[in-house]
């Protein structure tokens, strides 16, 4: 099939590349000329495991092409994916200016039947708005479909090629059949293509992400309470996770969620509720608790250093909001760094992928280290913000030799308490016993 993807951000690039991988001819369109030139040269502009292999293979096979021309993209594709930014507005709502702006151009340019697919995460009723905007100028038939993505950063290629489910919001049988044909190669194992109305499909994405954010946040609340009463959150988590009604996933406590999806989607659904005179009280609690959770280590750090961080140097391991990505949007590490800097402290940081992105924001306000151990040299303490695999089995002797104070503040509970007790380190984590050496 001939497919066009408008927008080559995270979702657009993964979508276009993975669609090309099953033999489709894909044109990806972006207004950034330098980015398009870079992709034509075979350079992947984002970090996502395994994407580079598929990207290069499909460019070589001439199935994946790039253009700055919307007209070229529309002439090529029978199915047009809109993978455009929907950034958070000041009031928490999703900003639809890019989606609706491109939709207006589509109405003027299409001259044969097209299926326009909302792939971006958008509020309920967006498909209807897109249809109305295109209809103003369209001189041919078209359909608008909602097809939300469920891609986890770090696992996006697998999630696309082997989806647990595909949600298609469509009121057109013609469009539905085309979408089923497109996705058939991805559901050969029997996972469902779920067809529903457009509004339900739009809400499904927000509901799923908000539920997971609430699950994470609830577990963080439990962890904080564990510290108050002397319980161990790891034991509580195991006891909860074996209940099949609850499940083991998303029960790991830490310093809050971040990224491009959970924070934005929770706020957008909360704002949509307000617009429709419905108060999502649970989402308001999730937003507030997560905001506080991001800096839950700061009081522990202040307490250890007797409320004086002036001139102290802190090593930070992990800047991305999660491992296996370079995405720093809403990353808890940034909140911690800003709080430390405001207290007069210095920061040395290491992350396998995200340092260039942080450097674009913070410049020379912090030091970026060449390795995880370089960051420790002459630092007063180590703070762990992201659970990258390379941090899981460190050389504790190197840590102790490098740090001025043998103390770790672990925001991701990477280490077993019994192991830490043998290392003669002070160790603060989330919802567990504090170890003082």
Short characterization:
The chain has 437 residues and is an alpha/beta fold.
Written overview of the protein:
The chain is of the alpha/beta class. The protein has helices at residues 10-21, 33-40, 51-60, 70-76, 97-109, 126-135, 156-161, 173-183, 198-229, 233-241, 262-275, 281-293, 297-304, 332-342, 355-362, 396-402, 417-421, and strands spanning 2-6, 25-29, 64-67, 79-82, 114-118, 142-146, 166-169, 193-196, 313-317, 346-350, 367-368, 381-384, 407-410, 426-428. It has a six-stranded parallel β-sheet with strand order 3-2-1-4-5-6, with helices on both faces. Strands 11-10-9-12-13-14 form a six-stranded parallel β-sheet, covered by helices on one side. Strands 7-8 form a two-stranded parallel sheet. β5, α6 and β6 (142-146) form a beta-alpha-beta unit. The model has no long low-confidence stretch (mean pLDDT 96).
Attribute tags:
437 residues; alpha/beta; 6-stranded parallel β-sheet; 14 strands; globular
Major β-sheet strand ordering: 3-2-1-4-5-6
| Terminal CA distance | 64 Å
Approximate strand percentage: 5-15%
Mean pLDDT: 96
Number of strands: 14
Spatial shape: globular
For the CA atoms, what is the radius of gyration? Answer: 24 Å
Helicity level: 40-55%
Structural class of the helices, strands and pairings?
alpha/beta
| Quaternary organization | single chain
